[in-house]
């Protein structure tokens, strides 16, 4: 069996030599553990933070440690009554072909209800992040004018659609390619979208959101956050979810500069971490599950085949090659 370990802490964009594929024995489950053969692995931006030893909300990987994170697999061996061989479970042990999670720490998932990959995305952590940020942190309400950055990604694509489903007057998204802009407008039904690589974000946002922004869902930070602050209406709310424009940066960004706007317009900028909102999962699943079933919430996935391509999938996700959730299928 194979597993993928952190070989070196990256400087800037991670590269193949920062990862190492190791050959190990198929593990034997200990007391209270089950043996799982992984089927789908998640690659997520927060893993870039874990690869670094800089202080972050997420604990750092040790060099030589397996890149742990969410994965879903089939139970092969179990000594607990609640889980039988052939069941599918999600666990947190990450990039390995076989895992031995504690039976009471896994979440059972049903492939009859949704494809396994969906539990890593729209019906999992990234979907809940969009929901918690848009509903609980930003307090989305009818008539709001909304801007979502990183809008074609796993979190952003769900966040923009939740805003529409909750009655926003106008939802604008930004993304990094013409094809993603087309996807946002034609398939997800956003009112306007732009490619942030086409020109300064502030100018493009002003054109796309002529009535300003009441709610900003930030996945990107940097110039996107600065532009959004400059466009925000009185009492605007920003849910600060991520700052991916800086995850590979080698020098700190400047800003925010527009303090007069934050103070004068009484803006509320609030960071949040999805794991604080895990108690919202049942409500989220009830609402989003129904939206997905009825086709009102669409989701894309970019699926990379082959365990050995997991680092490539991760690096491609950081470079924007995904639309919707990036997952690896084994
Ligand atoms: P995505 O599916 O959105 O994938 C990452 C995307 O980021 C890429 O597709 C790329 O799209 C975009 N990107 C990369 N570099 C830049 C850049 N320099 N400027 C602008 N966009 C860039 O990932 P997720 O949906 O999983 O995560 C989205 C954000 O949400 C991240 O910031 C992540 O850290 C955060 N997050 C936060 C959580 C929380 O609890 N607070 C939980 C989960 C995620 P493009 O082609 O558009 O550039």
Tell me the distance between the termini.
12 Å
List all distinct small molecules, including ions and cofactors, that are bound in this structure: NADPH dihydro-nicotinamide-adenine-dinucleotide phosphate
CATH secondary-structure class of the largest domain:
Alpha Beta
Strand fraction equals: 15-25%
* Category from helices, strands and their pairing: alpha/beta
Summarize model confidence as the mean pLDDT: 96
Order of helices and strands: EEEHEEEEHEHEHEHEHEHEHEHE
Q: Count of DSSP helices?
A: 9
Architecture of the largest domain, CATH level 2? Alpha-Beta Complex
Number of distinct beta strands: 15
Helical percent range? 25-40%
Main β-sheet description = 7 strands, mixed
Give the low-confidence spans.
Answer: none
What is the total domain count?
2
**Radius of gyration (Å):** 20 Å
- Multimerization status: single chain
Overall 3D geometry?
globular
Using the coordinates shown, work out and report the CATH topology of the largest domain.
Quinone Oxidoreductase, Chain A, domain 1
Please name the fourth-level CATH homologous superfamily of the largest domain: Medium-chain alcohol dehydrogenases, catalytic domain
GO molecular function, one term: oxidoreductase activity, acting on the CH-CH group of donors, NAD or NADP as acceptor
Organism: Kibdelosporangium phytohabitans
Keywords: Oxidoreductase
Protein name: NADP-dependent oxidoreductase
